[in-house]
Amino acid sequence: MRKNICSVLCGGAILLGVAACAKAPAEAEQAGGAAAVSQETKEEASNGKKILVAYYSYSGNTKAVAGQIAAALGADLFEINTVETYPSAYGDLVDQAQREIKAGFKPQLSSRVENMAQYDVVFIGSPNWWGTVAPAVSSFLSQYNWEGKQVAGFFTHGGGGMQNCGRDLQRQLPGAKVLSPVAFAGRSSGAPQKELQAWLTQLGLK
Questions:
Q1: % of the chain exceeding 90 in pLDDT
Q2: 3-state DSSP helix/strand/coil percent for the chain, to nearest 5?
Q3: Architecture, CATH, for domain 2-202
């Protein structure tokens, strides 16, 4: 049912670009797992920088990409979760997301990153919701000091592409060095490996 609704929505002008909303939970959960990475490999991949990959994922597609990035760079993973869960019915989700974004609402989160100051580079992942970052990601961004950090955004979408996601992410990162963002079509298997590796190389982190 979600797949049909998402296909219609992504083809229209009012796009909530949650590419990942089309996948069943069980399918979504199997993607994004990172194999164990040795300390030597971590240091080589990240050039000695401490890296965090933080992400919000409604149905697993953004989670899958986050897992790929963490595996490639030996980074730590942090999942952004809200105290109140979003509706499982996709139409209800669309309506709630639109209301929250229009109101600038920032939902309460259930956990925080311990010692954010230790990270030199932070990747921020979000589905494209109504052409911008999900409200949960905005909540996350508002909780930390980004001064002096390198931050790279990655987004999943259902046909809308980047839209305003990169711009709106940058506006919420005062003092950070914001690296070039990227958007991938949402799939439970994550991003195409060649495209992901090319982006990480462009950032100077792979």
A1: 75
A2: 40, 15, 45
A3: 3-Layer(aba) Sandwich (3.40)
